[in-house]
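I am still getting used to backbone structure tokens and would like to learn alongside you. Please make up or recall a protein chain and show it to me in full. Would you write everything just below, so we can both look at the same thing?
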Amino acid sequence: TVCDGAGTTARIVLADVNRRSATGIVQERTAHPPPAHRVHLASALPKGDRLATLLSMATQLGMTDFTPLLARRSVVLAGAETPERWSRVLREACKQSRRPWQPVIHPPATPLASLEASPPGTLALLMDASGEPAHALLTPPPGHRLILIGPEGGFSSDECAELVAAGAQRMALTTATLRIETAAAAALAILELAPLGEITE
């Protein structure tokens, strides 16, 4: 089975395989509708190879969009060369998890700009240890969702105040301090339960 990352999958019979390429005959082609709801992860970037782990796990767990955040305490910033490398990670994760749509990578943005650019009615969830426990916010199917995850030092108090004033809800995943990629995977795993329940507004 092959996939173009834009909603089309096909079953093929391989005709020739070598170290650099493969050719085959298409037996069946399927067009998959785009996700009904966007799950947008706007996150500060972790250091080193942990970013690849974040992108891979997030894709497997249903992320449809990714924005690298420019938070006040950010240590790692997106470079000009990174989108193509990120795209390779997303592509491999789509193959592994058999997701026909590859997530969209957006330009870096501040937390507030990410929230303000969201479609109307988007439920914005600010990951904050002082927020409501995730299970207390779960109740039937949500629309578009935006998950906001800060840098290792957390969002500043001003950033949190701006986001809450703009409509974001604070959500606590645990009382422990999590790494960025762990928080992203935990939040997405919870929201993957959306068919069973929704996040209340």
